[in-house]
Design brief:
Shape: flat
Largest sheet: 6 strands, mixed
Radius of gyration: 23 Å
Number of strands: 6
Length: about 180
């Protein structure tokens, strides 16, 4: 009986490795990034998680200044919301919807490299009046998990960024009339 258990365990481990299964976060992204060094610019709760996600790739250097980096990854927006999802018959909250929206853009030489990326992460939070402290702890755990998930999604999406065509770069710059005089 022990032999059969060990054989089944060995067969299941072999099947998992044969299908390409890897634990998340322990290896570099599958696709190589189009740059070798990056500087993280911005503030917010996602920045530290994003630094950890990018540091996992041994092919990438996270620079300490923008001058040392090939590209700058700027977190331009981070917003979180807690909305009521369902209400019970008594009119009390039954479930919340937690939403985290993060927008980042990649800059190379001061010019935008690719379109800005927006990641939206949502989680449901069941709520009970009888377990307020436990639900507060669960909510803080969910927010941490959502920040980690958003950072991982942003890090993976960097491998697929393509430079904008010159025409698109020009359309993103604000148009200034030729006869406009500087304000003094």
């Amino acid at each position: 009986m022990r032999f059969i258990r060990k054989l089944l365990l060995l067969a299941s481990l072999f099947a998992l490795t044969a299908c390409g299964f890897q634990l998340r976060g322990l290896t570099a992204p599958l696709a190589p990034l189009p740059f070798a060094s990056v500087y993280l610019d911005g503030q917010g709760a996602v920045m530290s998680e994003l630094g950890k996600a990018l540091a996992r790739d041994p092919r990438l250097t996270v620079a300490t200044s923008a001058a040392q980096a090939e590209v700058v990854l700027r977190l331009s927006d981070e917003a979180s919301a807690k909305d009521i999802l369902t209400i019970n018959r008594a009119g009390r909250v039954n479930e919340y919807l937690l939403t985290l929206r993060v927008t980042a853009e990649l800059l190379r030489g001061g010019e935008r490299y690719g379109e800005p990326r927006t990641v939206i992460v949502r989680r449901r939070l069941a709520y009970f009046d009888s377990a307020v402290l436990a639900k507060e702890e669960e909510e803080s755990f969910l927010w941490r998990d959502m920040r980690r998930d958003a950072a991982d999604q942003l890090a993976r999406s960097l491998a697929y960024m393509k430079p904008l065509p010159a025409a698109a770069q020009q359309s993103l710059k604000p148009a200034v009339p030729r006869d406009a005089q500087p304000v003094r």
